């Protein structure tokens, strides 16, 4: 078996394609707590209080979707090694390896997964000054949940190709994957089509988390779901819809994994495990609709030929064509 193409250090940032770019830029910079670092004619880059140059890129688009997921590698040499290993696996590279000329700099490459999500591996990005952590603002992006039409194929790709580890399952409905000590940086949710389910932003503590919810409430923005605390990952959650209807989450207190001791578990989908504080109740139909989003062809829209070139992608073609069997059943 091939070794993974790289050792991912962290999830750096997320690009979202959005139908409401100006309004969402105002939302994330105005009340969500991020800061604008760069602005272009069709895109905005925002940072948190942490060390990443930016954690969110909003790009104007006719349909909501995932632009790309950016992961940190340690060195440019690791990016070059990843490029060689992608070639050995027959996985096409969409950009790089090489210097990144756009916002944030760095040395990177981009490729796509079998459902068309663009993955960027980046080293040597521009440093930014760390901001104070008193205010109830996000440190950065801590995880992204992705809707998938084939959860087993998705987990296989991210573990085999990207070396991520499965921390926990929520029955056969969700899989939580880590690349460092955080319980999950990515989670997959079995769904009828490929799309982004939500993006979660880390608050430094439960107090920051609650004050953030309070600030949104003060501006008339109420949670779609939450506040509550999840069983898998043990993190707090409060989900909101941004102006384009994409779901964003405040979270805190994600479980830390000791790589040598952690044992993956399968969590039953029962209220006392999904909502351990008992404060949130089940998600509403409106919440589920927002989290389902719209079918997202990702890189296949720009590069239709990729479906034939990425192993396993053709079998998933016809988004929404793969039926979801009864939840919780193998
Ligand atoms: Fe989440």
What report would you give on this structure?
This protein is an alpha/beta fold. The protein has two domains: 10-123, 2,3-Dihydroxybiphenyl 1,2-Dioxygenase, domain 1; 140-292, Roll (2,3-Dihydroxybiphenyl 1,2-Dioxygenase, domain 1). The chain is built from eight helices and 17 strands. Strands 14-15-16-13-9-12-11-10-17 form a nine-stranded mixed beta sheet. Strands 2-3-4-1-5-8-7-6 form an eight-stranded mixed beta sheet, with helices on one face. Strand 2 and strand 3 (43-47) form a beta hairpin. It binds fe (ii) ion. The site of fe (ii) ion has 7 residues, from strand 9, strand 13 and strand 16. Residues 10-124, 140-253 form the VOC domain. Pfam families: Glyoxalase. This is VOC domain-containing protein. InterPro entries: Glyas_Bleomycin-R_OHBP_Dase, Glyas_Fos-R_dOase_dom, GlyoxalaseI/FosfomycinResist, VOC_core. It comes from Nocardia aurantia.
Brief characterization of the structure:
Residues 10-124, 140-253 form the VOC domain. This protein has helices at residues 21-32, 76-88, 151-160, 206-218, 271-274, 285-292, 299-302, 306-309, and strands spanning 10-18, 35-39, 43-47, 56-60, 65-72, 93-99, 107-112, 118-123, 140-148, 165-170, 174-178, 186-190, 195-202, 225-229, 236-241, 247-251, 265-267.
